[in-house]
Amino acid sequence: MMETLAQRLKFVMKEAGINQSELAVRVGIKQQAISRMLRGVTKNSRYFLPICNELSVSPKWLMEGIGDIYTRDINSDAVIHRIPLLTLKQVLNWPQNKAQLADEIIETWWEISSTNVGQDGYAIRVRGDSMEGQGHRCISEGCVLIVESTSEYESGDLVIAKLPTSSSACFKQIVDEADATYLMSFNQNYPLIKFENGEVLGVIRQAIYEYY
């Protein structure tokens, strides 16, 4: 039984008679990226749909093991979402001015194989080192965050938030304490921020590192 994406990808590559190098060339990425998926290191990628196209397999089956292998339901909203890569300034107008932003400003869109974000979800590329901590508490510059557009959160969530004194949003961990709510950085060189009269604009559902 094929329980993981890595196992299913290995199976369809064998069935198609294609190796890592050939698939990487067809998709336009480095062989290491395919290798990481086959080893289970990468469980999602911006190249997920191109890989499905090259192998003529169903994204829903490859990601979740559900349905027919070769039913190409690429437009299934239950699995695939097309979301914009926004800046922390653009987030302030999302999704209220969604139509205007989509038509005039957004240049990069991601097709994400995830059921964790809705149609108003978006992506953010991490800038700076404020969330670079130790061990698993480390989200480095360049990482792409997949964000659910919502104001509802739980203490400990990673969020995109707007402070009343700032002209752009920020990426932090939100923590409710007995006396107040705070925005925290994983990097201890950054100060704790008391979150007063601010707004949560989204909750991070996934972090994607790109390997080319």
Automatic annotation (TrEMBL):
- Annotated InterPro entries: Cro/C1-type_HTH, Lambda_DNA-bd_dom_sf, LexA-like, LexA/Signal_pep-like_sf, Peptidase_S24_S26A/B/C
Q: Which SMART domains match?
A: HTH_XRE
Q: Which Gene3D superfamilies match?
A: lambda repressor-like DNA-binding domains (1.10.260.40), Umud Fragment, subunit A (2.10.109.10)
Q: Which GO terms describe its molecular function?
A: DNA binding
Q: Kindly list any coiled-coil regions of this protein.
A: none
Q: Which domain of life is it from?
A: Bacteria
Keywords annotated in UniProt? DNA-binding, Transcription, Transcription regulation
The HTH cro/C1-type domain is annotated at 9-62
List the protein's name: Helix-turn-helix domain-containing protein
Organism per entry: Parashewanella spongiae
Taxonomic path: Bacteria, Pseudomonadati, Pseudomonadota, Gammaproteobacteria, Alteromonadales
